[in-house]
């Protein structure tokens, strides 16, 4: 990630929020490195600088662990978009978004946009499971085929995401339906005191993704980037306005004044 | 995996500080240039001079000289020491009191008259290294006091301190750092940023200061490093935003500092070093009883309770090389690029390029070609570095030598591949694609010969299709080096192309000819012979053409003659003179014939010589075919058709000459007839056709042909002639033959009646012929003459009416009618008119016809004219 080192000033910030183990880091990996690899539970946070056309977008991956919960507000400060991530096989992960994470976004920009993203769709949706990421580098494809453990193996993780297929009958976590996410999106708007009609519609802002197969991952990030574009432009304008003095404008103004004093 | 980024070098050792007094501990340190101050638990300040010594081997050590120590008289440990070098003061915190001490004498500075030089009840203080107030003779200080929830801002002068601002905080602060107007505070349960000028505050994140000692460390303009939950080193700026990802320390960090690009942290037993660039742990140094870690003007100093050390960063380049040596390309590059702002620009560029190149070679060694290529490109690698890895690819004449120190550890490709041929092959494939890409870019500037020659060698060796493309286009392949190589791989065709490219067409042709003749083996082109012919016809060097045409014609005259026939017409020297070609082709009869055909039939050269020559050749062929027994009728027919066509269609050949050649050849009657026709000896021609050949259709066709570009009278003449021949023959001949001629005459008349003058025909025809026989002819003749008669009548009528029409028009033009009556008199004789015929003078004056005639006769026009002019 040489981009990080150059410390280009990002134009805009996008933050991934959500409970631990929902797959925030995996989503970011899939988008930036085009592969699904082993992760360890994120410590504190990490970020990635994405070149989007002429703009630099910083994408912050936060830690879902309770321990780091306090950092969330700071990471969200000044965010133009927040991706609220849950795990489609884990009802609690959606509930946590509402209980713990939504309030962290109070520090985000007033015009911040919110996406509700259900990850691990490959475990519930055959479309997502069979999806082929067309941009994968050839050698990576095999890597995920070979090195990825079967879902059952994940039970070694602190909170095992249950695969409904492998644990037929004993479903540990109730699945989340897309309607639940849409309803939650409505509650986000209410929480923010936003009018549903003038805000971005839920259909546009609720996604189901799979970091494992790449399903909907590009769609998610690119849709968000397109939507934050006005925010970037506004920020650039603000930055331009304050420090520079437009001589033309000044001259114009003084002329006007001169004339009016004359009359 | 680790990097050696720092080295721990002892500075002040235990016995120098306290000898054998076991209970003395170091409490705080301050370093200011070479001056090291140390506060101890027994209320002493020690002053040392610290000198860097570099050994001959480049190893750094410190020589220390103790200057002074002083008891402060408070019996309490010295908690903090800060130098204000511009004021020559040390700011000391001891027993909750801040006061000033002279930097040299270590004497406590007495309070000045106007104000105190002491602050009481202080738990901690910090110096603003980036004050908004620019006064160099005072120092801004942030102070936390034990009793109040406030932060006080003081100005420290040489001999006094002055409170300038006091801001309240929501909780009791326990650590503080200051930059500009911004206070970064650790409160009991959280960190916050507070602007002491505006009072605006920004919560950062919660932190339990009771549980773990907070750290608030200014690391740069408006940026702070904070101890976060779970042993995190968190970054936050004055706006309350984190711009760098956190680093993961241990839970019990005591002190931390930034020494770009690293974050150094101290806990009870280790110094940990994380990179700010990728947040990874890079180095761990064991350090027992660690107590203090602070950075002073970029120098990181550590202290245990008993001794002081300096953490000396290793030269960046060395760190990078270490990383590269362990193939940690990514990290090496991050470190290099991260150091950009700490190194002068030109130096950085050189370093960066070199590291990129090295990185590229490491990845190349791991067969990660895509990445390698990218790094070679970014690092602007001299491609020859890469080429030189492949044995024998660089031309012998190349001036290239590998860069020193070397960019990689490989002697050559074989060393790299360790005998794995599959690897070698993949590397070669990569080089092929890489050179192919760069050869036309600026990367190849200055070494195009080396690049192209290497590429040629690889193509040849790998039997690559692009070899020919390379040679057929603009290239800089070195001939001397390429020749043996191409020969080795039997790429003779390619070699010929190279010769050609180097202007050695003769060498190219010789080589190719040997291939065609089977002396050399190269299957590149199965149509090499045709290629050579093509090559020759477009070759501008006529000597070469003359030299090798012979070989080509012998191989295959039909194709070989293309050398001459396909030559593009041009006006320069390379134009061949047809006469020369004909002379040259003398011994290649077949080719000569083809060439003449090309001249006469295709190019339509209007030269008697060629036409005659061709006709003669045709004739000779016919004669030779005829003389062969048994005759190949089919061939003969074809040969004769050609001859006949030429004789008929060309007007240039010498007719008499040809006629002479076939005078007594009774088989070529048709040809002779044609020749007679050319001479307009139609009677002879027709005689042959009618009497010798008895080929009436040909006789008819002859008439049509011979008159085709003449007028109808000529045509009529000719047909009458033929009719005459038929009829005469009819009278002289006897038997069945006579009947034939008669029938021929009838057919001729019936078929071509329109050309004949029917009246003349009727006169010529024998009396005894039946009308029935000639019915078609006569019918047509009568119809034709009727038609002619009526047509002329119609024409007459039409002309008449046209005439009348014109008269009418003329009268209408005059408008006024001229009245003639018996009462009117002629203007000339003044007699009256007795007839309607009159002559009208200009102006419509009627006069007698005879008067006018008289008048004209009497007076010549001239005179009249003079008269009339006299009148006027
Ligand atoms: N089947 C499936 N597993 C996934 C997917 N995304 C992530 N996982 C797995 O879920 C686990 C957690 O993924 P992470 O990306 O580390 O989760 P996280 O949200 O970053 O977790 P924290 O960093 O602790 O907040 C890992 O074992 C992943 O392999 C997915 O789309 N499908
Ligand atoms: Mg994570």
From TrEMBL, chain A:
| Topology of the protein relative to the lipid bilayer | Lipid-anchor
Where does this chain mainly localize?
A: membrane
Keywords attached to this entry: Cytoplasmic vesicle, Golgi apparatus, GTP-binding, Hydrolase, Lipoprotein, Magnesium, Membrane, Metal-binding, Nucleotide-binding, Prenylation, Protein transport, Transport
User: One GO molecular function term?
Assistant: GTP binding
Enumerate the cofactors the protein uses.
Mg(2+)
Q: Name one GO biological process term.
A: protein transport
Q: Where in the cell is it found?
A: Cytoplasmic vesicle membrane; Cytoplasmic vesicle, Phagosome membrane; Golgi apparatus
Family according to the record: Belongs to the small GTPase superfamily. Rab family.
The name under which this protein is listed is: Ras-related protein Rab-20
The organism encoding this protein is Dicentrarchus labrax (European seabass)
What phylogenetic lineage does the species belong to?
Answer: Eukaryota, Metazoa, Chordata, Craniata, Vertebrata
From TrEMBL, chain B:
Q: Per UniProt, which keywords does this protein have?
A: Coiled coil
Any one GO CC term of this protein is: membrane
Where would one find coiled-coil regions in this protein?
Answer: 629-656
> Can you tell which superkingdom this protein's organism belongs to?
Eukaryota
PROSITE patterns per record: CHCR (PS50236), CNH (PS50219)
Q: Where are the transmembrane segments?
A: none
Q: Which GO terms describe its biological process?
A: autophagy; endosomal vesicle fusion; intracellular protein transport
Q: Which InterPro entries match?
A: Clathrin_H-chain/VPS_repeat, CNH_dom, TPR-like_helical_dom_sf, Vam6/VPS39/TRAP1, VPS39/TGF_beta_rcpt-assoc_1, VPS39/TGFA1_Znf
The residue ranges of the CNH domain are: 23-300
Repeat (CHCR) residue spans along the chain:
566-731
**Name of the protein this chain belongs to:** CNH domain-containing protein
Instruction: State which gene encodes it.
Output: tgfbrap1
């Amino acid at each position: 990630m040489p981009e990080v080192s150059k410390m280009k000033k990002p134009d805009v910030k996008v933050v991934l929020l959500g409970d631990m183990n929902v797959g925030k880091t995996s989503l970011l990996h899939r988008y930036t490195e085009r592969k699904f690899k082993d992760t360890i539970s994120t410590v504190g946070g990490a970020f990635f600088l994405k070149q989007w056309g002429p703009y630099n977008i910083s994408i912050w991956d936060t830690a879902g662990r309770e321990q780091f919960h306090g950092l969330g507000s700071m990471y969200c400060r000044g965010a133009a978009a927040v991706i609220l991530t849950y795990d489609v096989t884990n009802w609690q992960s959606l509930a946590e978004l509402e209980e713990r994470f939504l309030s962290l976004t109070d520090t985000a920009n007033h015009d911040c946009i919110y996406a509700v993203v259900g990850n691990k769709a490959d475990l519930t949706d055959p479309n997502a499971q069979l999806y082929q990421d067309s941009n994968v580098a050839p050698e990576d494809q095999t890597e995920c085929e070979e090195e990825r453990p079967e879902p059952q193996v994940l039970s070694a993780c602190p909170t095992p995401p249950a695969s409904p297929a492998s644990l037929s009958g004993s479903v540990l976590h109730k699945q989340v339906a897309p309607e639940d996410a849409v309803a939650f999106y409505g509650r986000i708007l209410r929480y923010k005191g936003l009018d549903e009609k003038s805000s971005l519609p839920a259909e546009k802002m609720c996604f189901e993704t799979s970091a494992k197969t790449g399903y909907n991952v590009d769609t998610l990030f690119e849709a968000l980037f397109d939507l934050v574009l006005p925010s970037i432009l506004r920020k650039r304008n603000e930055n331009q306005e304050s420090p520079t003095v437009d001589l033309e404008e000044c001259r114009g103004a003084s002329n006007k004044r001169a004339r009016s004093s004359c009359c | 995996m680790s990097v050696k980024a720092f080295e721990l070098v002892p500075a002040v050792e235990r016995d120098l500080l306290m000898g054998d007094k076991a209970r003395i501990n170091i409490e705080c340190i301050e370093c200011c240039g070479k001056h090291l101050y140390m506060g101890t638990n027994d209320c002493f300040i020690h002053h040392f001079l610290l000198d860097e010594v570099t050994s001959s081997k480049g190893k750094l050590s410190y020589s220390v000289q103790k200057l002074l120590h002083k008891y402060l008289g408070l019996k309490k440990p010295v908690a903090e020491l800060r130098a204000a070098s511009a004021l020559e003061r040390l700011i000391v915190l001891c027993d909750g009191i801040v006061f000033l001490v002279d930097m040299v004498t270590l004497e406590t500075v007495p309070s000045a008259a106007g104000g105190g030089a002491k602050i009481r009840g202080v738990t901690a203080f910090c110096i603003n290294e980036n004050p908004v107030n620019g006064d160099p003779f005072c120092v801004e200080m942030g102070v936390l006091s034990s009793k109040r929830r406030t932060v006080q801002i003081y100005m420290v002068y040489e001999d006094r301190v002055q409170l300038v601002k006091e801001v309240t905080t929501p909780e009791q602060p326990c650590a503080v750092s200051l930059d500009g107007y911004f206070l970064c505070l650790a409160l009991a349960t959280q960190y916050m940023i507070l602007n002491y000028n505006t009072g605006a505050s920004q919560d950062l994140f919660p932190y339990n200061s009771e549980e773990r000692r907070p750290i608030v460390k200014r690391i740069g303009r408006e940026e702070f490093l904070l101890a976060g939950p779970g042993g995190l080193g968190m970054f936050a700026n004055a706006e309350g935003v984190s711009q760098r990802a956190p680093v993961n320390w241990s839970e019990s960090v005591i002190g931390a500092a930034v020494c770009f690009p690293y974050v150094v942290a101290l806990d009870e037993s280790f110094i940990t070093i994380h990179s700010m660039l990728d947040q990874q742990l890079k180095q761990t140094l064991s350090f027992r009883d660690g107590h203090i870690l602070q950075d002073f003007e970029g120098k990181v100093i550590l202290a245990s309770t008993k001794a002081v050390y300096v953490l000396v960063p290793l030269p960046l380049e060395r760190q990078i090389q270490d990383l590269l040596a362990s193939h940690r390309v990514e990290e090496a590059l991050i470190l290099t690029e991260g150091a950009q702002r700490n190194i002068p620009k030109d130096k950085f560029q050189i370093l960066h390029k070199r590291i990129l190149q090295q990185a590229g070679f490491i990845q190349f060694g791991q067969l990660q070609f895509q990445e390698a290529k990218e790094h070679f490109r970014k690092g602007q690698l001299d491609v020859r570095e890469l080429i030189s890895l492949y044995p024998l690819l660089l031309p012998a004449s190349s001036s290239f030598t590998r860069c020193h120190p070397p960019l990689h550890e490989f002697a050559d490709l074989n060393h790299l591949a360790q005998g794995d041929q599959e690897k070698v092959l993949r590397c070669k494939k990569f080089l092929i694609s890489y050179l192919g890409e760069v050869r036309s870019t600026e990367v190849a500037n200055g070494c195009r010969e080396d690049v192209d020659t290497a590429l040629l060698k690889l193509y040849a060796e790998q039997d690559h299709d692009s070899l020919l493309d390379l040679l057929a286009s603009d290239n800089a392949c070195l001939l001397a080096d390429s020749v043996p190589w191409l020969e080795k791989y039997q790429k003779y065709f390619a070699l010929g192309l190279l010769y050609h490219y180097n202007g050695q067409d003769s060498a190219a042709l010789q080589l190719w000819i040997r291939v065609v003749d089977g002396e050399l083996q190269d299957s590149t082109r199965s149509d090499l012979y045709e290629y050579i012919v093509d090559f020759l016809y477009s070759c501008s060097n006529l000597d070469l053409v003359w030299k090798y045409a012979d070989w080509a014609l012998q191989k295959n005259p039909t194709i070989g003659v293309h050398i001459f026939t396909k030559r593009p017409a041009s006006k320069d020297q390379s134009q061949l003179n047809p006469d020369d070609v004909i002379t040259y082709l003398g011994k290649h009869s077949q080719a000569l014939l083809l060439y003449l055909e090309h001249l006469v039939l295709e190019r339509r050269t209007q030269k008697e010589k060629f036409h005659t020559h061709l006709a003669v050749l045709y004739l000779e062929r016919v004669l030779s075919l005829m003389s062969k027994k048994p005759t190949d009728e089919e061939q003969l027919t074809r040969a004769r058709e050609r001859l006949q066509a030429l004789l008929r269609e060309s007007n240039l050949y010498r007719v008499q000459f040809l006629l002479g050649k076939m005078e007594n050849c009774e088989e070529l009657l048709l040809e002779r007839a044609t020749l007679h026709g050319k001479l307009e000896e139609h009677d002879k021609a027709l005689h042959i056709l009618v009497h010798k050949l008895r080929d009436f259709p040909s006789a008819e066709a002859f008439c049509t042909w011979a008159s085709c570009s003449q007028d109808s009278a000529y045509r009529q003449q000719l047909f009458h002639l033929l009719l005459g021949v038929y009829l005469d023959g009819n009278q002289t001949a006897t038997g069945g033959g006579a009947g034939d001629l008669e029938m021929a005459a009838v057919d001729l008349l019936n078929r071509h009646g329109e050309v004949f003058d029917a009246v003349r025909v009727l006169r010529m025809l024998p009396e005894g012929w039946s009308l029935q026989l000639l019915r078609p002819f006569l019918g047509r003749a009568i119809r034709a003459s009727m038609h002619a008669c009526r047509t002329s009548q119609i024409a007459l009528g039409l002309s008449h009416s046209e005439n009348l029409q014109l008269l009418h028009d003329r009268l209408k033009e005059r408008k006024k009618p001229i009245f003639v009556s018996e009462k009117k008199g002629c203007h000339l004789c003044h007699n009256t008119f007795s007839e309607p015929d009159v002559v009208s003078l200009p102006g419509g004056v009627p006069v007698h016809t005879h008067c006018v005639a008289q008048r004209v006769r009497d007076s010549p026009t001239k005179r009249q004219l003079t008269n009339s002019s006299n009148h006027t």
